[in-house]
Amino acid sequence: MTFLAVAKDIRDIKGPLYFPVNYTPLIIILCALFLTGIFFLFRFTIKRIKKKKKEAIAKIRLPHEIAYEALEALKAKGLPLQGKIKEYYYELSLIARHYIEDRFDIKAPDMTTEEFLFDLKDSGSLSKAHKDILKEFLNLCDTVKFAKYGPTQKETEDSFNAAGKLVDETKQAEEE
User: Fold this and answer.
1) 117-173 pLDDT per residue, tens
2) What is the helix, strand, coil percentage profile of the chain, to 5?
3) For residue 45, how far is the Cα from the chain centroid?
4) What is the 3-state secondary structure (H, E, C) of 11-64?
5) How far apart (Å, rounded) are the C-alpha atoms in residues 109 and 123?
6) Does pTM surpass 0.70?
7) 141 contact partners, CB below 8 Å, separation of at least 6
């Protein structure tokens, strides 16, 4: 092999090869991933909203259920046996007033007894018998709370029963 034969065999280096860049598959894959993420985020949000709605519906209780629970809690405290008659009547009248407010949409807790009974007189939501029971009940509660009247054990029991009777006779049906 001669020098010329070797020189013919030597060639110059080739430049770098450039491949045409095609971003289309990459864009399609990224768009698919983005849309999939949006879909799952939307689905998760919808499920969460439905779950919260179900929980909210389950938590809604009727006014008479709340009143019964409050009456039982008051009974369990045993305030009359501890000599806390004034506190007992205060809580008992609040339970009745909150029940009236929740059941008939009358702002009972924010009014004095006289204002409340005056507004109730024009209201057709309670029957005359229920209005009389409520008037007698609230007047006894006020007498104990403000006039330092000491009720007997029977009067205390009658007051509790009057509040329970008011709730029993005016409670709304479960279907409402």
Assistant:
1) 777 777 777 777 878 887 887 888 888 878 777 777 888 888 888 888 888 887 765
2) 75, 0, 25
3) 20
4) CCCCCCCCCCCCCHHHHHHHHHHHHHHHHHHHHHHHHHHHHHHHHHHHHCCCHH
5) 16
6) no
7) 89, 90, 92, 93, 113, 159
